[in-house]
């Protein structure tokens, strides 16, 4: 998705369209709650904040990209990951 986002940005910009991507890290959801506790703890500790993100963190990032205030941003990837040590 990162490559597609960056590759499409110039062509879409010619049409007045912006394209960006959000790359979530370990997010605390019902799905991740089903992961064994020890594995969840590893996911939480693999970032600078030492905690999992919340779905609202991802949602607010997406909402920003949907807002006209972000119309000068295109071809970018925002990592919502607490500065994860691995991933996107």
Automatic annotation (TrEMBL):
Give one Pfam family: adh_short_C2
Report the family membership.
Belongs to the short-chain dehydrogenases/reductases (SDR) family.
Q: Which InterPro entries match?
A: NAD(P)-bd_dom_sf, SDR_fam
Single Gene Ontology MF annotation: oxidoreductase activity, acting on the CH-OH group of donors, NAD or NADP as acceptor
| Domain of life per record | Bacteria
Designated name of the protein: Enoyl-(Acyl carrier ) reductase family protein
What the entry lists under PANTHER family is as follows: 3-OXOACYL-[ACYL-CARRIER-PROTEIN] REDUCTASE [NADH], SHORT-CHAIN DEHYDROGENASES/REDUCTASES FAMILY MEMBER
Q: Which residues form the signal peptide?
A: none
């Amino acid at each position: 998705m990162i490559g597609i986002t960056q590759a499409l940005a110039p062509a879409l910009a010619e049409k007045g369209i912006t394209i960006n991507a959000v790359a979530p890290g370990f997010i605390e959801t019902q799905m991740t709650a089903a992961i064994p506790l020890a594995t969840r703890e590893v996911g939480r500790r693999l970032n600078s904040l030492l905690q999992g993100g919340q779905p609202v963190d991802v949602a607010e990032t997406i909402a920003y990209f949907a807002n006209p205030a972000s119309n000068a941003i295109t071809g970018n990837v925002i990592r919502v990951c607490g500065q994860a040590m691995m991933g996107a």
